[in-house]
Amino acid sequence: MKFITYYRVSTVKQGLSGLGLEAQERAIKDYLSFNKGEVIGSFTEIESGKKNDREELMKALKMCRQYNATLLISKLDRLSRDVSFISSLMKSEVKFIATDNPNVNELTIHILSALAQHEREMTSKRTKEALARAKERGVKLGSPQNLRNRDKGTRVSSEVRSAKADVFAKDTYEIIKPLLDSGYSLNNIAKEFNKRGLLTARGKTGSWTARSIKNIIERVSQ
Length: 222
What we know:
By secondary structure, this protein is an alpha/beta fold.
């Protein structure tokens, strides 16, 4: 298993003194001594847990996605107390393990997701009931305006997919460029990506080709 470790303390003073970091590092070191795995990246943040935009956390999650790695943190209370941490993990779909309770990881996210899904289902149900009552009152449904809204929704969906593809291309190019500068051919870069286990845009490993590398370069160059 590949791990990306993430540490956080709230103040610069704690960061400089090692106060708080040492306990986190010790917990993760103890966990790794009893569990097989390789740490391929590590990120440390000196930031308040109240802040939603955490640069180092975003970097850690991005690396987890690129290498299909698991985020390793020291304590579960970081998840339960930090709304931003919960939100980031839910959106990123990154697997994680907390050393103080390694059996509670994806399950916690799934519970939160299940609650959100239940709310969406209830909203959908209420919408359908409202539409049914409107139809009973003689309101015409499926008007040209509704069709235009549907077309607009399709365009928005396409734009969202395109935006995600742009972000993926930009992140991946950050890895491609140093290899290009070092004289790697597109074919050798693809082999290197497959060797490292980097995920493709479709979430697969071992599927990189010279053509897919070229596609990334061309998309970033547009």
